[in-house]
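Teaching assistant here, posting this on the class forum so everyone can see the example we discussed in section. The complex has two components, and the goal was to see what a joint structure prediction looks like when all of them are supplied at once.
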Amino acid sequence: MTDIQQPKLSALGWARWAWRQLTSMRTALFLLLLLAVAALPGSIWPQRSIDPVRTANYIADHPRIGPWLDRLGFFEVYASPWFSAVYLLLFLSLVGCVLPRLRVHVRALRTPPPRVPARLARLEHHRELSVDLSSAEVLAQARSVLGRRYRVATTEETLSAEGGYGRETGNLLFHVALLGIIVGVAIGHIFGWKGDVIVPVGTGFANTEIRYDTIQYGPRVNPRDFTPFSLTLDKLTVTFEDQVGGRGQFGSPRQFVADVTTHARPGAPGVRQTLAVNHPIEMDGATVFLLGNGYAPVITVRDKDGKVLYSQATPFLARDNNYTSSGAVKVSGASPKELGFFGNFLPTGVITDDQGPISIFPDARDPALALGLYEGELAPGGDGGSVYTLNTEKMTQVKADSGDILRIWLKPGETMKLPGDRGSITFDRVERWAGLSIRHDPARWLTLGSALLALGALIAQLTIKRRRVFVRVAPGDGVTLVTLGALSKSDDAGLGDVLDKIGAAITSSAGSPRHTPPRQTPVRGSNR
Amino acid sequence: MNTTLALYANYAIYSAIAVLTLAMLAYALYLSRAVPARGEVRDREVVMAGGGPGTAGASPSDSATPVETVNAGARWSGVGLSFSTLAALLIGASLLLRGLAVHRPPLGNLYEFVCAASFFVMVGFVGWSRRRDLSWLGIFVVTPVLLMLMLAVKAFYTEASALMPALQSYWLSIHVSMAVISVAVFTLGAIVALLYLLVDRFERAGRAPGWARVLPGARDLERTAYSFHIVAFPLWTFTVIAGAIWARQAWASYWNWDPKEVWSFIIWVVYAAYLHARATTGVTRQKATWIAVAGFSCIIINYTIVNMFFVGQHSYAGT
């Protein structure tokens, strides 16, 4: 065995080689399939950006594999390095593919169609006929059939035409439009923001950063620049299906409509508007969406002397389709120890043997509050956690006089005295809350425009055929011999029809042809 | 809500299932009659090459169907087509009745989606049959549609009712009807693609079972499959775009990576890979077609597993 002398590649040579590999069609194909595979885990595992609670629960439930999946980015697939790597490589490959082709295409658009090949009979599609017309008449006929869709170059005896440049134009535009979508998404991430807020009926909110329950904004967004519009929730109408039975229908939501009053800025006159699912409100600089709803029981807590320590609509979060909702009441003004109620609000409450208190219908038909009570320190070290749960680290559960754990069960209007002179709790009435999402995405029109451009260009590239058509005339003995030929760059079932059409136009303009039927050579070989 | 109309809609679907079963039997008889009697076995290739003189400009397949088999089975294929037409009308009637019963487009849940997709597959098949003899395709279309409808009635059935607020939008008609139509065209494309892969295997092995003699040649099948896909792909692209526009209105963000969105994206990418593969030198037509078949598998996953097991905003589309 002798050593094979391989040519040494310089750094530039390697770069060129890598670039050629990356921009090849096969690599693009591989990357496309890889992109499909890489996108898949995001539909299997919960995603932190969509549902952080479910993600946290999943990791907690799978202590062995959960943290590893987390480390590998399976809970943030679409922001993970490997997913980004695939699509960035794909777009790089796309740019590398499109740029040279753009140059070639522009050149092709400027050059006239190529000269007629010497032997038209060698083309896969060709016809021969002889007619009683002059060369000029034949060529004029052919030209009129080809029309404006072809660029035509003629000599005295030949005609060559090329058409269907729209195919390549469409193809290039399609790929450029895909880049436009990516750019639009990126701009949206950099300059856009979104905030969520829970607003009980009768209250309002102003568009300032601190007012949001959660807010995410891009690196180039300054929340101090938010337009100071405000909104009051006057009424929230919610209805649920109670007529139709059957799986997945009874209890389904049927209507969420909010009546709101908006103020474009502080001091501006109020405008009454309707906000509903599918009917967002456009404000200056942001759009307001109605995305969620739930119940906010109005709860009052008094001390042993009847002094009000806490009284407000307290939002509870729905946990199931029947709006069994959980929440907490934190009474930091209680003494000697702070009080924390936690538990469920049930719009149509029943107490079952196996599941305890649950709701059996999402509408407030028979509302009930089922609570327990803790006392101690609500926010040890300043960390009270979520407003919907209690941090019971430094708290102890309060027992009833009987020695059992204290269970509070209240219907609207009812008051319960708390054991050991801790005062009382009253369930005054039920309100609803609306979950609003306020978004700003300055680039969404760029994304949409690019997507529609991509669609149009896609249709063009799939339907337009790139074709070359050639005609040669040769005077024979008293007749003119016409040879037609056609070429296509792609799979083109209709190529023969073009020649038939030209042939028919020439023979019909010559009147009754001398040789009937006109000698036509059928397709020879395969139609490849 | 009109329960009587909803009931009639169900009767129409049951009838469609019965009629489709008859159509399937008729097409099965057609194929079995197409099997030549013993000793009559011809070389398929010879028949294929019959498109010689006198057929200028015609595609080779038009003359490829052996005359004898057509005569033997023609009656049954005619019966099959009649039943297929009737089945298409019955599914259409069922959709119409359900729509009238609930005063909305009948596209609100998976049951209605599958019925509508079956309708468009049948309409596509029957409509195309008017332009070309599709006796060979009959059983391969009718059988999957029959399975789809039985699955719809048995597993996906949802009572006729009003829609949840997120679906109460005119975008339902635009987004879901386009999804239904493109899935129907993808279905026809996948059927022809699978037949291509089968016939291609027969042709390379040099022998084929008797019934396969009525099928067009591999090249013709491959081209037909491609034609279906280049119609379906832009329709799917539009479905995704329309879905994004609607998502922005209903869910505040045009793309959420909801499981259904993820799979719509995967389907789009896989079919894009198919179109790419077909234009890539060095990738055989067989390999490219397998990618198209993979794309259709993704569609099936999208409307079964994703609907039933993956949690997302589209989950109302299931049960």
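For the discussion questions: Residues 37-67 of chain B have pLDDT under 50 and may be disordered. Chain B is about 70% helix and 0% strand. Think about how each of these relates to the inputs above.
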